[in-house]
Write a structure and sequence with these properties.
The structure holds 2 protein chains of 2 kinds. Chain A contains no helices and 11 strands. Helix content of chain A is 0%, strand content 50%. Chain A is mainly β. In chain A, the strands form 2 sheets. In chain A, strands 2, 4, 5, 6, 9, 10 and 11 form a 7-stranded mixed sheet that branches. By secondary structure, chain B is mainly beta. Chain B contains no helices and 12 strands. In chain B, a hairpin with a 6-residue loop joins β5 and β6. The model of chain B has no long low-confidence stretch (mean pLDDT 91). Classes of the chains: A mainly beta, B mainly beta. The interface between A and B is medium-sized, with 32 and 29 residues.
């Protein structure tokens, strides 16, 4: 186990709705990254939060947004859901103390289905 | 932009045998890190092994070892004495050092490894 948890495990939404996914990082980890994993594909980077500020973003539209809280939890929000948003959403936490190696520890993911 | 290529979609190996999973990558960076992650059917991504590009010595973790060829931009994973619990999807991943979005992991498409009893 990695010590990273996510909720809910599964979620079904309809097109146009909004969804919030939650992640609880390892205690003390100051960085959380979110990834989208389509079926049969490798994860794609959505964005990263470092000390509660967005610290980098992948090729995802602004309707994907996030928050990181001081208690090592974080959220991924997706507005105006589209069918292509159906995927496994993974969060990964890490402790970054400066330039150098950073190992990311993944949660089990939230499976989102958009109908 | 960095890319990671895993060209073998599936592999199968007999229990107790050795298997090698291939990965190539493309980058113009000189300092970076490479990882192999395992994703069992339960979905949780687990770090298997990591390699710093500035280290010439290949990383080893128990039954897992890598063959890192920096000039060829190749990073293969060798699993010795395969066990049934090794059955999973394996992802090769790349990261540059922590500088904003460069600290993202770039993953390959993965390879499904099946260990036969």
């Amino acid at each position: 186990e990695t010590g990273v948890t996510q909720s809910p495990t599964h979620l079904i939404k309809t097109r146009g709705q909004q969804v919030t996914l939650r992640c609880s990082s390892q205690s003390g980890h100051n960085t959380v990254s979110w990834y989208q994993q389509a079926l049969g594909q490798g994860p794609q980077f959505i964005f990263q939060y470092y000390r509660e500020e967005e610290n980098g973003r992948g090729n995802f539209p602004p309707r994907f947004s996030g928050l990181q809280f001081p208690n090592y939890s974080s959220e991924l929000n997706v507005n105006a859901l589209e069918l292509d948003d159906s995927a496994l959403y993974l969060c990964a936490s890490s402790l970054v103390v400066g330039p150098g190696l950073e190992t990311q520890y993944f949660g089990p993911g939230t499976r989102l289905l958009v109908l | 932009a960095q890319t990671v290529t895993q060209s073998q979609p599936e592999m199968s190996v007999q229990e107790a045998e050795t298997v090698t999973l291939s990965c190539t990558y493309d980058t113009s960076e000189n300092n970076y890190y490479l990882f192999w992650y395992k994703q069992p059917p339960s979905r949780q991504m687990i770090l298997v092994i990591r390699q710093e590009a500035y280290k010439q010595q290949n990383a080893t973790e128990n039954r897992f070892s890598v063959n890192f060829q920096k000039a060829a931009k190749s990073f293969s994973l060798k699993i010795s004495d395969s066990q049934l619990g090794d059955t999973a999807m394996y992802f090769c991943a790349f990261m540059t050092s922590f500088t904003g979005a460069n600290s993202k992991l770039t993953f390959g498409k993965g390879i499904t490894l099946s260990v036969r009893p």
